[in-house]
Fold:
Amino acid sequence: MSKKAAEFVTNLSKDPAKRDRFMENPDAVMDEHDLSAEDKAVLRTKDSDKIKSYLGDDSPPGCLVLP
Structure:
C-alpha cells in the first residue's frame, strides 16, 4: 500500500483532464509525481480492482473508475 499512490488516484478521480492524460500516456503523468516503481507498475495495469487491492485501506471510496 502506498499513500502517494492513493493521493495520485484521488487526484485522477477529481481531475478529468489529468485522468484523460493518464489514459493516453500513463508514464508521462506518473513521472510528474513521486511514485515508486511498484506504484507505477500497479497503476499501469489500469485495473481498478487490482489498484484498489494494492491501495488497501488507503483506497479512496469510489475512486478511479476507468473505462
In short: The first helix runs from residue 3 to 14.
